[in-house]
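During the reporting period the student researcher (J.K.) took over the structure-prediction task from the postdoctoral fellow and processed the backlog of single-chain submissions. One of the processed entries is reproduced below for the supervisory committee.
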Amino acid sequence: MASAARALGALLHKASSLSSASALRSAAVLHVCSGRGSVGRASLFQMLAAKRRISTFQPLCMGRRSCKIAGRKDAQNLKKMKRNSKIGKEIVAAIKKGGPSPSSNTALAAILEKARELDIPKEIMERNIKRASEKGQDTYTEKVYEVYGFGGVGMVVEVLTDKITRSIADIRNVVKDCGAKLADPGSVTFRFRQARVVNIKVTDADKDQLLSVALDAGADDVIEPNFDEDDDDDNDDNDDSSEDVSERFYKIVTTSENYPVVLSKLQEEGLKFETDNGYELLPLNPIEADDEAMELNKVLVSKLLELDDVDAVYTDQR
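J.K. obtained the following structure tokens:
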């Protein structure tokens, strides 16, 4: 009888991590085989319910495609948050420099107009206008930091901060934790060139049409997005494919003087383009890194962009 009781106890413990129906059947069979008394199905269920533990888990991505799409949604949200944060900082910096009146502060007027074009929430603009007049609020300063990534890849980190010591400490900690290395000023920036760039979603333009428009407008180059190797395998799933590429962009590269001409030409052709464009750093000689280095660089860039003071990270990885 003692051995049967111990066996029942072990089975009940195991049943706490199994489905109740399966545990119920197993326990009932044990009692029948032991021949030591009988337990009704209702009372046995009550015993199991008293022992059962409930565990919760974070939701899992069901398949590779879902994980990729979830990652892209997170990237979209982070991009929007960074854009709103940068506009807020620019508002504070403009007010600190030229006062709170857009009529007399042309820099502030231009930033507010840009914010309206980007559909920045009104409360964000009002909050930062108010913050600029608060005591103890320093102005924002632009800084650039350079990083040696993995596989020979270099990175340029653009920062807009009101506390330089905080921003460099945060960046240094992230770089160190990821196993990368901060570079001396000028060690990485020479690998890039600054250019005016117009970004067009691949879902908003036909490639041939875009190339024709860019050529007619006198653009310097059109850079196509890099697609994952797995994308061709997923073309049969139209819904997933369209969502997967919705945040990929063609980049029309041009000079500052020709930038308005390109925008005008795109508008004439009815092609949508991103309104938050401006100057970007483009690699002169993109580097082909191996899969391991690419993954490490991806993690490093992601963690850098999570920092409040970091506005953009450019790499010369292909």
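The committee noted the following: The CA atoms of residues 205 and 277 lie 17 Å apart.
J.K. will present the remaining backlog at the next meeting.
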